[in-house]
Amino acid sequence: MRLTKSTIASRKNGARSRGPKTPEGKLRSAANAIRHGLLSKNVVLQNESETVFTALLDQHLAKLGPADGVEHCAVEEMVVWRLRRIWAIEKQLFDEAIEKRHEASEIERIAATFFGLAAGPPLHLLDRYETRLHRMYQRSLQNFLILRDFPSPAPDLDAAGPDGIPNEPASC
Fold it and tell me: Is the pTM of the predicted complex or chain greater than 0.85?
């Protein structure tokens, strides 16, 4: 394959690079290795607890005990952090709207808030996203259970490393 002059020049310049120097460049460069970002630091917002997220993932892994990389990927799909975020957003919407109400009893304030929010798009949008995310969780769980019943193939001796031990499966 013939290379163009610009490709050759780009490769020469790239070979001289020693990486990003500024904090912004380093942050941008750190994101290069993210394949899908679902289980990276990027899934947890700055004001959310990464410890809680990790605990949730660990609980799923401990409960379901994935046997291989494929089952592990199914469990990772189930850790739907976004669903918990939807619940937090909905709670915040209600809390803010309830504070603005002046009905006599708490149940009247809650009812009035509900009907007020139901009349606009935010609650409908959250409901649609919650339904979608819940279906994704259920589908991932169902796929995991199907995989659990699926027999694992015998190790491929051709895929073994130089020491005769089969290579590890790639992660998701």
Answer: no
